[in-house]
Design brief:
- It is a single chain.
- The protein has a 4-stranded antiparallel beta sheet, with no helix packed on it. A 4-stranded antiparallel beta sheet has the order 7-4-9-10, with no helix packed on it. A two-stranded antiparallel ribbon has the order 5-6.
- Helices cover 15% and strands 46% of the residues.
- It is elongated and about 75 Å long.
- It is built from 1 helix and 10 strands.
- It is an alpha+beta fold and 153 residues long.
- A hairpin with a 2-residue loop joins strand 5 and strand 6.
Length: 153
Amino acid sequence: TPTQKATTLEEQNKDLDSKVTIAKALKVGSVNIVAYKVKNSGKEVEVSRANPAKKIKINFTVASNTLADKALHDVYVRVLDPTGNLITTTDSGNFNADGQDLQYTYKTSIDFKNDGSMFTIDWSNPAAFQKGAYTVMLYSDNSTMGQGTFSLK
């Protein structure tokens, strides 16, 4: 019947819409995370020990994606400390990704042009860094972009 056909087509369209939404989401190509301290002169110096570390730089590329909008995309950063706890600040908020309501450590935007350019997110830890391995997860367009780790002695 025409009603069944319309319902079937509507379901197929919803299925295609969700596939396109997934395909449009940004994914990390490569990621490199570095801890550093800032000298009195303002110069940034890479460090491998927890004690002097104050900030991290998350350097990443976004995988080529011809379906993604060439525009500003919000990026949510979640930083997990060596004990697996999410580091939050007073201005941390919530976002939705992969069907879950999550809290973020830091939020920023990137201007995606699909040109393979490198992006850098600077983040200052409000608390002292601990010794151990940290996990940094990036999210955009309601899905996981990718993740990386770094360790401090």
